[in-house]
């Protein structure tokens, strides 16, 4: 990310930010996609950006069930599913380019979840900023998939809290944004 930005919203890979690179007041608003290395100006000022926001009140969404938009669970027979051994290998390598794949590990029981969270915790102790972003992003996805399974069990809730605590020590603003979203679940 360039210097002199104030992040408004993002997920670790994409961001909307106030851009102070060329000014000290009335910054433009930009969209950044870190993976695609894109920088797109959304508006010349924050006021203009706000004026472009609206609530979609069209009837196009009538009859659509919110359940249709939930994150899909990955089953063991899914072609993208990974095995326990593959998940462990990915977490042991701690490669920021592969860590997103741990979300393709099919969790079928609380024991599967505890195992994965324990491995994420171990990986977190070796994380740098880049791997921290990927681990936090993957953890957020896993929580979204299995929120009730995590928070119905004290042990898994504690593992999530420990992972958050470890990743907070990175003192990375991008990681911290993801961790704040995870804390909203806690």
TrEMBL record:
Classification via InterPro entries: Knr4/Smi1-like_dom (IPR018958), Knr4/Smi1-like_sf (IPR037883)
Domain of life (superkingdom): Bacteria
Limits of the Knr4/Smi1-like domain: 1-51
Species name: Bacillus sonorensis
Name of this chain's protein: Knr4/Smi1-like domain-containing protein
């Amino acid at each position: 990310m360039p210097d002199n930005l104030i992040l408004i919203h993002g997920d670790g890979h994409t961001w909307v930010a106030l851009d102070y690179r060329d000014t000290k007041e009335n910054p433009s608003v930009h969209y950044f996609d870190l993976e695609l290395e894109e920088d797109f100006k959304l508006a010349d000022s924050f006021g203009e950006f706000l004026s472009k926001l609206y609530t979609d009140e069209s009837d196009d969404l009538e009859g659509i069930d919110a359940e249709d938009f939930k994150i899909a669970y990955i089953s063991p027979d899914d072609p993208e599913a990974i095995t326990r051994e593959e998940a462990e290998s990915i977490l042991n390598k701690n490669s920021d380019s592969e860590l997103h794949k741990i979300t393709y590990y099919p969790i079928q029981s609380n024991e599967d979840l505890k195992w994965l969270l324990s491995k994420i915790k171990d990986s977190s102790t070796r994380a740098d900023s880049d791997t921290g972003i990927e681990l936090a992003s993957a953890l957020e996805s896993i929580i979204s998939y299995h929120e009730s399974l995590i928070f119905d069990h004290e042990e898994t809730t504690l593992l999530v809290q420990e992972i958050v605590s470890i990743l907070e020590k990175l003192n990375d603003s991008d990681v911290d944004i993801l961790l704040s979203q995870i804390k909203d679940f806690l």
